[in-house]
Each structure stands twice: as C-alpha cells, then as structure tokens.
Amino acid sequence: MIQMPLQDIIKKITENAEITEEEVNEKISEKLEQLKGLISKEGAAHIIANELGVKIISPPSGNLEIKNVLMGMRDVEVTGKVMQSFGIREFKRDDRTGKVANLIVADESGSIRIVCWGSQADKTQDLKEGDIVNIIGGYVRANQGTNEIHLNDQSKMIVNPEGVTVNIDIGSTGRKKIEELTEKDQDVEIMGTIVQVFDPRFYEVCPECKKRIRPSEAGEFICPEHEKVNPDYSYLMNIYLDDGTGNIQAVFFRNIAEALLDKQPEQMLAYKDNPAAIEQMKNDLLGIIIKVSGRVNKNTMFERLEFVARSVDRNPDPEEELKNMQDVSEVKTEEVE
Questions:
Q1: Contact (CB, 8 A) for 228 and 326
Q2: pLDDT of 177-224, one tens digit each?
C-alpha cells in the first residue's frame, strides 16, 4: 500500500483546497473523536481530503521527482545524478550466491538510495559520481524510516541517457553546525569529533528482503514475505559527535557502519562474539574527526534530535574544510545584509 507522511497529506490539502493548516488539523481532531480508536491521524486526513475533493495520491506515471517517491509505489521511474556509489557486495544464502549494490541518487528535489539486486548490481560496476541514471520499473520500500528504490531483474537502469541533464552539484549537501540542526534537515552535512562510542548492535534479518525478523515461540525465524528462513545478521553503530557548538547522537547502519570502521562485512560480524575486540575498536575511534552527511530524525521517546548517517568521510581534508567554513560564513553574512 502506498503511504504518505501525515504532514505531506496536510500540505496537499491546503494547496488544493481553500483551507488553512490549522483548519485541517481541527477537522482531523474532530474525525478522530467521531471514530475513536478506529483510524489513525493519517486515515483521518485521507477522509478529510476525500470530503474536500482533494486527490492525495495518484498512481506513478512517467518520471517522478524524487521528493514525490512514496513507500509502497511500484513501477517507479526517476532520473538523478549519482552522488555516491558503495560498490558491489556479494552474499551467500544457503546453497546460492547473490549480489547487491547501493547508490545515492539525487535530483533538484532531493536524494534517495537505490538498491540494485542481481544483474542490476553488475550495471553499477563502472558507475562514477556525476553520472546520470534513469531508473525504470523500481519498487519502493521503507528502511529505517526512509524510502529506498529497489531494482530487480525486470527493472531497467539507463546510464547517461542522451540529452538528459540534472542540475545539481556533487557535494552540494548543505553544511551546518550541530547547534543549527532541526528535524526538517533531511539532506545535510556535519563535521565533528567522536566523543563517545557505543557497542555495535546486531539483529536478525531476512536473507532475502533484509527486513528485521524475530523468533517465533517455537524458536523459528519467520519472514512475512519469505516464510521460514535461516536469518542473516545486520548491524548498526551509535556514536556521539561534538563540534564545539553542541553534540548529537549519530547512527550508522550496515554499510555506513562498515565505512565508519573501515571494515568488511565479515570483519563486522566478527565483533558479535568478541567483547575485547569491541573495546579496542571503540578506543580507536575516540577523538577522530569525521565528516558525515545524512538526515536529522526526532526521537520522540527521548525528545531529542538524532543524526542518521548516509555517508561518512573518515579523513576530511583540513584545507578544504576551512574553505567550506569560510564559504558558509560569507553566505550567511550576505543573507544578513
């Protein structure tokens, strides 16, 4: 099922009906009161939209802007510039092997991860940052609160299609100080010193779809899509970064955790049952200055902002970073004037 965030639904209603955001929220509250316990806020917002004659979601047709890609969409087509390529990773599941590759692609509206399976992974072998890709026939899944476009053998990837341009610069992610971050920052870059490192967390995932799975009462692992499976393991790392203006907890999932530690998957999994190696790794990370790009997430349980990493640079160039800081300072001075 295609899903749209509540705030996006409200925005769609206000843009297409003569009604303010405050009035929409009032109508949603009234609908929730009428249908106590039967619907969510999102469901109530959809009902309000129908009552006002506003069409919230249309089936994907033609080339979508990345900002309009929604979880649950199928046969998606987008065109964007390759901002980062993480290479091809081979994996083994029981008696068969497979390949997967991950890219970050961006257009003028935003960025998104492209997950390429099987033969599609091979097509990324010679991709370079700055190449333009036209993705056709992708399907959208949610991963840790963000949308990803997945490609299978029936999907298509056209590299550098003739006559197509994407007007976005490599490295155009906005730089901010930690104290300036807000939960609206979905494509931002920070730099800071690692001041605290937590143990890596390992958890079971389906070897096919990579979704998290938990054991049944009988001790078997059941995936909703692939039934009984022998689990694979994924992992994440949490650290605290400080840049002198503030500090923030940053989370690094799987391949980004590998980049943070400069480790291969098998080396990461070796930490799972080796506490001594974990302590050494944590000590080695303390005091390192890193540059991280990603998005800000609001942790509602602890009422704090967290940073979800999309990429990490363990060795930022001091001269380049000094120039970036000067450029940002000049821009802000111009804005004030």
A1: no
A2: 999 998 878 778 899 999 999 999 999 988 877 778 888 888 889 887
List the structure tokens of 307. Answer: 């940073």
Q: pLDDT (tens digit, 9 = 90+) per residue, 95-137? A: 677 888 988 888 888 888 899 998 999 999 889 988 999 999 9
**The model scores a pTM over 0.85:** no
159 vs 326, higher pLDDT: 159
Mean pLDDT over 34-40 rounds to 79
H-helix segments, the chain: 6-16, 21-34, 41-51, 119-122, 254-261, 265-270, 275-285, 318-336
What one-character DSSP code corresponds to residue 38? T
DSSP H helices, 220-317, are 254-261, 265-270, 275-285
**How many residues are there in the chain?**
337
Please state, in angstroms and rounded to a whole number, the distance separating the CA atoms of residues 204 and 268.
14
Residues facing 148 on adjacent strands: 113, 141
Residue with tokens 């980049």: 259
